[in-house]
Amino acid sequence: MTINVAWQTRHTGAWTTTRVEIDDPADIPVMLHRLETEGGLDAAAVHLARPRVAPHDHPDHDLRFGVRRRDQGPVGAIFYADGAGSWVTLGDGPEDGPVYAEMEFPARCEITLSQLEGALVEFLRTHQRPTIVDWQPIG
Length: 139
Prior knowledge:
Blueprint: E1 3-11, E2 14-22, H1 27-37, E3 43-47, E4 52-53, E5 58-59, E6 62-70, E7 73-82, E8 85-89, E9 99-100, E10 103-104, E11 111-112, H2 113-126, E12 135-137
Antiparallel strand pairs: 1-2, 1-3, 3-6, 4-5, 6-7, 7-8, 7-11, 8-12, 9-10
């Protein structure tokens, strides 16, 4: 099983896209650390074992996630959509909806970094919406 993850960072006024291919769960915390420390914008992940949709050969799913530094430490949030609907993670905060992946997320969408890591590992292994975290439907 493999997921392709991409995010953008800005260095000396220019945007750079970082792309990583992950097939080992041990690479997920490394990727999250890079996303956080390199100041990356939110990432998008595509699971290569999932179907593609014709006529443009797009993935049948959309998974976007991000990491933020809060007073209590790093937190994250996930947006997931497929043919069955759209969801964001359900967590403890913040009370005001933050912006992730250029989208306004609802309040209480942020989860711990370890929960984010666990959800991405589950997505890598199962290619389905992770069940290890709680979700709230959107839109």
